[in-house]
Write a structure and sequence with these properties.
Radius of gyration of chain A: 21 Å
Distance between the termini of chain B: 63 Å
Shape of chain B: elongated
Strand order of the largest sheet of chain A: 1-3-2-4-6-5-10-11-9-7-8
Structural class of chain A: alpha/beta
Number of strands of chain B: 16
Strand order of the largest sheet of chain B: 2-6-7-10-1-11-12-13-14
CATH architecture of one domain in chain A: Alpha-Beta Complex
Shape of chain A: globular
Order of helices and strands of chain A: HHEHEHEHEHEEHEHEHHHHEHHEEH
CATH class of one domain in chain A: Alpha Beta
Oligomer: heterodimer
Helix content of chain B: 25-40%
CATH topology of one domain in chain A: Amidase signature (AS) enzymes
Radius of gyration of chain B: 30 Å
Helix content of chain A: 25-40%
Largest sheet of chain A: 11 strands, mixed
Amino acid sequence: MTSPLDLPVAEMAARVADRHDSLKAADLVDAALARVRALDGRVRAFLHVAEEGARRAAEALDARVARGEAVGPLAGVPLAVKDNLAVAGMPLTCASKILGGYVPPRDATVVARAVAAGAIVLGKTNLDEFAMGSSTENSAFGPTRNPFDLERVPGGSSGGSAAAVAAGMAPLALGSDTGGSVRQPAALCGIVGHKPTYGRVSRSGLVAFASSLDQVGPFARTTQDAAALLRAIEGPDPLDATSRAFPAARPAAGLSGLRVGVVEELEGAGGDPEVAAAVGRVRAALLARGATAVPLSLPLSKAGIPVYYLVAPAECSSNLARFDGMRYGARVDAPEVEPLYARTRDAGFGAEVKRRVLLGTFALSAGYADAYYKRAMAVKTRLRVELAAAFSRCDVILSATSPFPAFRVGEKAGDPLSMYLCDVLTVTANLAGVPAASVPAGLTAGGLPVGAQLWAAEGHDDLVLSVGAAVREATGLGYVAPAIAKEVA
Amino acid sequence: MSAPAYRVIVGMEVHLQLRTRTKCFCGCLAVYGAEPNVHVCDVCLGLPGALPVLNAEALRLGVRTGLALGCTVARRTKWDRKNYFYPDLPKGYQISQYDRPLCTDGAIEIDGDDGATRRVRIRRAHLEEDTGKSFHVAGTKHSRIDLNRCGTPLLEIVSEPDLASAEEAGRYLEELRRIVAYAGTSDGNMQEGNLRCEPNVNLVYENGDRTPIVEVKNVNSVAGVERAIRFEVERQDREYREHGRTSKNTPRSTRGFDDTTGTTVHQRTKESADDYRYFPEPDLPAVDVDPALVEAERASLPERPRTRRLRYVQALQLSAYDAGVLTADRRVADWFEAALGPDRTAKTVANLLTGEVFARLNAAGKAIDAVPFPPARLGELAALVDGRVVNAPTAKQVLKLLWETGEAPAAAVARLGLAQVSDPEAVRAACEAAIAAEPAAAAALKAGNEKAGGRVVGHAMKALKGKGDPTLVQRTLRQLLGLPS
């Protein structure tokens, strides 16, 4: 017997919203909490489980349904929230020691909107500290494990959210994607992860890493479910001056005549042959159904990693300056203010965060800013232009999401540069501000998920997700539950 | 051997608090003097995840101030982060403007020390958010932080080094304060910190030597600015003469002004230029300044206070002193101009306003808007004075009635028969009687003792019940005594 947690989100919510249906939000929350209890000791996706709060919210929602009140399109759906998004009353850690026992006063806009649509916040999920990393190993509270192989990483930085959905603990999750932090863990965990067009989703309440690149995005088992969460959270927000309205996306194109861009520089790229083969199978399936391949070159995409690793640390060095031990969070006292800052930040930040703060501080320093930060920003601008030109020739670009499937815990932990290369296929979409999603593209011979990445022009998030749905139809490949998830109801 | 003569060079950096209801990037009230840390929110506290959103009113007041200073307003402006750590700076950076300031290339005029008009160029004026305040509590190891001021909008106004003395710097600040008060964009109150300034001072000698530039901080009044600059001039000259300190061998530095001693104290050298790691603020889009907004602000700007003052002297023939008094406050000048009319002189209106009206306001501790009658009424009274219908003492009496009962001047004069006696026959009779009654004084007057004549005039006026036309009385008396008139 399948659990109602495994229903499509729309069906789940419709049943909860129907007062005559036996399925209640409380049942979904109880089922999700049961899975968390059974699995999360091993997966470690959650940093905080809001057991009481989730139950109360579910009961309140059920009561509203019983009174005949209208509830939203996510009614009763358990939602896991990456712990760099504020949920009022729940600790906000960013997987860092520096926030101490900080509890934010209000919800992030995305959380408030999801809750207004009926979602129930199940808890806060693990991440690389301040979203800096690609494996969720840079968490001050220990790594999250990949539900497909507990010896392997779930990807990152939103590894907790990806693992929670992949393990079946939550049908939906929120993550943030600055250089691939939604798409790469989605790929490594065999689920759908979408990075919206920059500005489509409010960043208010998202603890900033690199403000010009950060976007909040949904995790789900299907593109339809991801779209349901995106619908709930998107739209201009008076609290975020960079949020914008985008015109209604063009209607989902059928595969017939769909122009699929194949980018020379993103093919192979030293990646795993099984990943390349899986993406090749997806492409072949699309072409077999009437899509056409458009060979493209994005020469500047080769500069993606260096540009990203200047822009993102530069912004992070400024964004993380507020963690100084003065007003909230952890503090290591000292008799003078300068050593207080130094000791607090030394004790509070992990190695990767310090590395990036130092890198960014250097890149912005007088005498170096021209050579590093300003040049990187200039390339970023040209990259946008290059990508916009590419999308005049194709509707979507298809590539791999991650060059390789999930690696072993510890395998890259001592080698930051090889860790940075995890993002080689994802950072370009952030730098250009365009939408991109990772969708399941099957498993390797060893049973590890592979993701295919679909990109489109700015604002065409719906196209990305509808082509993602078409990929599933064309290939028959989609989310499959890992063995661990089958242990529980 | 005497040291060569020098010129004083002063440039001013002014931080002006714009008069918005709420802060620059959040909805908190921008008020002075509240309990510490009550007007704060997640944005101005820099809580994780909070984002700034521009207050359009701050931009409007920035544009308006820039225009009032004769600046060009940028079509497109942007925000930058100025990064530094300080306990009263919650985000670890200040949102400011670096390479695309809102306003550039302005100028204001002041009176130079040589009496000529001195044009002081404004290099730029940019918007930024204010920091909080730190209080170092004496005798403790702790500081207290008040973040109420955090995020209130400032316009930083940077002049070119066009000022040549402490006095010119003082006049620059006074003029700046009047300009922004006229424009209605800031209270410009130095005591409350609405207007804070940092003079940059150095000396240039005839032989080309220059002393290193010193930036003076913690100056809280116009008098303080003048004292600080005078102190710096003397100190820098002494350092030059005694130790040969010039810009070539000594770095720029920042010194703090101590108001109690009138001295400046070294704070830090600028040998290693401050590195604020400016970069574009990614949380705020660039601003395309609406040309319609700029034109609307330009169209609604009042005449500059200095222009108005000079116009009062040249076109209205007022004394420089009266012109200064009347234009010091735009509301007074507006009130004054509303009292002018074709049948009265500006001088008479000014005399009545700065004399009797100001005396009553001062006694009550009130401002011009507390005058209980409209300006036109004072104008009517001035017309009666200029038409020699009433003399000065009577005018005072009529004004008292006007103030206390609102009775119109002409009506009061008619009702009480206060019109002055200008009938030559009546005046002649009164004068003859006065000469007869005061023969000794009349003789003294005839002999040239003008002072003694007062008694005769007084007698004649008394006979006319105080309503005699003073000029006619004088002339008639002199005629009767055979004096030249």
